Amino acid sequence: MVITSTFARTLSAFLPGLAVAVLAAPAAAAPARADLEFEWRPESTEVSYLGGMGARAYVQAVATNVGTRAAARVTFHFTPPAGSTMDPAENEQFGWTCDTSAAAWACTNGRTVGPGEFEALNLTVLLPAGTVGDTVTMRGSASTATPERTLRNNSGATTFRYVVPRPADITVNSVSVVPAQRVKANERFEVRIELDNIGGSPAHDVTVRVPLPPAVRAVSLDPGYPGWSCALTGTDAEPAIVCARDSAYDVSQLYNLLSLTLVAGPGAPDGPLTFTATADTSSPEESTGNNAADGGTIYYAEGTMSGRAWLDNDRDGRRDADEPTAYGRIGKIEFVLEGTEPDWDVPRGHLDESGAYSVRLKPGRYVANAYPMGGAPYEFTVPDVGDDTTDSDIIGSTGDYYNRGWSAVVEVTDAGEAVVDIGLAPIA
Ligand SMILES: [Ca+2]
Ligand SMILES: [Ca+2]
Ligand SMILES: [Ca+2]
Ligand SMILES: [Ca+2]
């Protein structure tokens, strides 16, 4: 009859005298002993004969304590096939420390495994290239700092088989632009292309082509991530950036981004600015339907209208150095698209204390209307005298009590700077 220590402990709780008697009998009471039982649980063991990221095997090593005493500091030991590697960082996040500096690897999380409990470690093994059909073996074992009942059940082997992998499959997952809106003339933005090889084989001669929309140019041909070289190609009329992968594009790459820094305008069409990235490879692919994607931003075309308003005290039509600002003499300046009536939300400008104003306007042909304060003893001075930087550009006015002056039609272009100056002369 075998009396387990658990049973003995249970007995001791209820029948102390008997328990002592049982434990005291050496023939009947087996001493409590730890006993690790090692087991492989293979998850993915067919690997690409080409090696690389396609030759990753996934296995789980399990150590169960089938003994009756806790097993301290359980450690796994692995003897991988020659040339295999693993990344210790992969298991660090789960509390494991793996030493892969020797031919045999050791991994421990330092924990104690109680009777009936188990510890499991997921292992990614990267195998070297091999021959189709060949199998290779990996041995594993578990150890504990606690003496064990038996060591016969502490190890096992698992096998990996080399197969022909699936073809490559390059995919452009997404194209995104940062910022996603309100990109203005000459403001830098980034086109980010995320791609991957979701097939089973490395893709060779991978290129990514991004045609540049009208008025868009590259600030830099540095793709921002290693492993790529980008160049400007195509014609002047239809330029494109083509980025070439420096080496074979393996499956599951660490760097699967390209980031191009571009600028648009002036003169790019106002509104959506779209980029399409198309990937290509000389390798056979599972699908080419996933090789292109597009994304974009919103281009915001805008120019400025500015000018100076002053009091032309000597009425000569020129803004002289000693003549004062018209700040406080002009109520508002509005900018009306040619051929339209001013709406409630017509763009308006206001003078600062120096008599200057500046407003941002969508490109178009505008007339500037200037409204002197009601009843001010001023009229608009004679326009277009001498240098345009010191003249008045108000060419006509109603001349009544609620006087309104207007400019000629002025064209505001994307990123352009139009000027309408305003001279008020004292009424003689
Ligand atoms: Ca054992
Ligand atoms: Ca593809
Ligand atoms: Ca003057
Ligand atoms: Ca002027």
From TrEMBL:
Keywords noted in UniProt: Signal
InterPro entries given in the database record: Ig-like_fold
Signal peptide range: 1-24
BP-aspect Gene Ontology terms: carbohydrate metabolic process
The name this protein goes by in its record: DUF11 domain-containing protein
